[in-house]
């Protein structure tokens, strides 16, 4: 779909080995910790929407319940010296594509140094704040399984529920909402019988750079994969469109 990169979702990575699963569990534990902190210590996912999103994403990779609970407990009693903080780093990649990198880290200097090295090895560069973020809008994204549902019917349901846009991909309908309406629209879609594949807050590109050469696409995708494999990195968004 337009503006939607497969690198935006950790669950779409290559098949997880034990070591990869360990990294994923760390990523999602950090997301849970941040959600609790940003929610003022609220540990009830029904009252803390960001925590609910983090837990749902953790469950999507079969993260055990005890791991999820440990992350919540850690957030409640974390030491200031080992606090995890969230940040969005901006970068330019090969062919001038814009990249947003969501990270959760207990050492910002280490994270910045690692990202800088990865980017520079692939012809990219870290950018100043605001240089790339204006190329994206934050929206809610709900993936709805097709399961025999027509585009027109899902579009009707989505608009009735308060969505702002819908796009069709091979396997799902991608429904976009205002960030604050994500939960409300999701609940409505469930109430009318649609099957939700996933839902999340998402950075959607407002304009895309078209890439037509396979070698350029391979270079970009290798860079994005390398960035996302870093334990500190939560998600990666890029504004390129492949034509190969």
Automatic annotation (TrEMBL):
Listed GO CC annotations: cytoplasm
TACO1/YebC-like N-terminal domain boundaries: 5-77
Chief location: cytoplasm
Classification via InterPro entries: Integrase-like_N, TACO1_YebC-like_2nd/3rd_dom, TACO1_YebC_N, Transcrip_reg_TACO1-like, Transcrip_reg_TACO1-like_dom3, YebC-like
Molecular-function GO terms, alphabetical: DNA binding
Top-level taxon in the UniProt lineage: Bacteria
UniProt similarity note: Belongs to the TACO1 family.
Name of the protein: Probable transcriptional regulatory protein A2W14_04460
UniProt source species: Candidatus Gottesmanbacteria bacterium RBG_16_37_8
């Amino acid at each position: 779909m337009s503006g939607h990169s497969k690198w935006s979702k950790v669950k779409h990575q290559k098949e997880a080995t034990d070591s990869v699963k360990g990294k994923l569990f760390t990523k999602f534990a950090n997301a849970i910790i941040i959600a609790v902190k940003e929610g003022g210590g609220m540990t009830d996912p029904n009252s803390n929407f960001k925590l609910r999103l983090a837990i749902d994403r953790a469950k999507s990779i079969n993260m055990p319940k005890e791991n999820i609970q440990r992350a919540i407990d850690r957030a409640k009693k974390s030491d200031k010296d080992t606090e995890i903080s969230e940040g969005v780093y901006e970068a330019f990649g090969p062919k001038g594509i814009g990249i947003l990198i969501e990270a959760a880290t207990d050492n910002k200097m280490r994270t910045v140094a690692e990202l800088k090295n990865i980017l520079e090895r692939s012809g990219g560069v870290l950018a100043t704040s605001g240089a790339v973020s204006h190329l994206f809008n934050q929206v809610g994204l709900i993936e709805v399984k097709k399961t025999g549902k027509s585009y027109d019917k899902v579009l009707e349901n989505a608009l009735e529920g308060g969505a702002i846009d819908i796009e069709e991909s091979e396997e799902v309908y991608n429904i976009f909402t205002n960030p604050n309406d994500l939960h409300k629209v999701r609940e409505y879609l469930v109430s009318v019988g649609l099957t939700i594949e996933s839902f999340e807050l998402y950075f959607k590109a407002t304009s895309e750079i078209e890439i037509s050469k396979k070698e350029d696409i391979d270079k970009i995708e290798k860079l994005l994969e390398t960035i996302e494999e870093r334990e500190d990195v939560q998600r990666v968004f890029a504004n390129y469109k492949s034509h190969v």
